[in-house]
Amino acid sequence: MGVENEFPLPPEGNDKELLNAARAFARNAVPLKGQFIAHEMPEDFLEDLAADIAAFEAKIAEQADARGSHVAAGEVLDDLFDEGTELQRDLDGFVRNKFANNAEVLAEWTRASHVERPPRRKKPGGGSTPSTPTP
Description:
Helix content: 55-70%
Number of strands: 0
Structural class: mainly alpha
Shape: rod-shaped
Number of domains: 1
Number of helices: 4
Largest sheet: none
């Protein structure tokens, strides 16, 4: 069994497998540290590798936190849009009753109160919010 078998490269594009491989490299390199240093590796290469692993783990966690914050913000925006749409519907009845005989005001209200809903965000877990059928 050659040394190259102790350090197999992980498939590309998978952070978890890359981290697992880096940890395995670090473990497998410990008994061979003297040989690596004899081949011009710096004496602290294992410490550098450990620091790189920790930094990569921190970035992955940071990215996951940012993704979670982004999803939460989208959900808040969806809720606020729904709330605003409900308020607009309630106000629509008042405006139409109050200005029933004023076509100009009603036309302006129709233009001003028309808001297109942005596309619904997919819910975590792969499901999406069902849309209400148009009558």
